[in-house]
Design a protein that fits this description.
Number of helices: 5
Shape: elongated
Distance between the termini: 62 Å
GO biological process, one term: nitrogen fixation
Strand content: under 5%
Keywords: Nitrogen fixation
Helix content: 55-70%
Protein name: Nitrogenase-stabilizing/protective protein NifW
Organism: Rhodospira trueperi
Number of domains: 1
Family: Belongs to the NifW family.
């Protein structure tokens, strides 16, 4: 095990890895995707025979970004879809749910 990996060996929470490697992260993305992010981080790190701290930092940042730009947004859309179908079997997602900053109240 390399020195960089030894330093991480005692960590258990995803947030601890981000802090130890000094990688900025979105707490909301980590809260929803922590297991997937850490799994992807492990996959990226495993591609290097003896990763140093900078390599591990890059791997963790890359794993985080994967979910910032894909899964977190998709998960929100699915949650809204489940909420609005209400078991009626209709696939309806209001546009306001996809871009709340640009939505206007109904009836205006």
């Amino acid at each position: 095990m390399t020195g960089a990996l030894e330093q991480l060996a005692g960590l258990s929470a995803a947030e601890e890895f981000f802090e130890a490697l000094d990688v900025p992260f979105d707490p909301a993305v980590v809260a929803v995707n922590r297991l997937h992010i850490m799994k992807r981080f492990g996959e990226y790190a495993a591609a290097h025979s003896e990763p140093d701290r900078d390599t591990l930092r890059d791997c963790l940042a890359r794993a985080h970004e994967d979910f910032v730009h894909s899964d977190a947004r998709r998960e929100k859309v699915f949650a809204v879809f489940r909420q609005h179908t209400d078991g009626a079997g209709r696939a309806f997602i209001p546009l306001e749910a996809l871009s709340p900053s640009q939505s206007t109240p109904r009836g205006e």
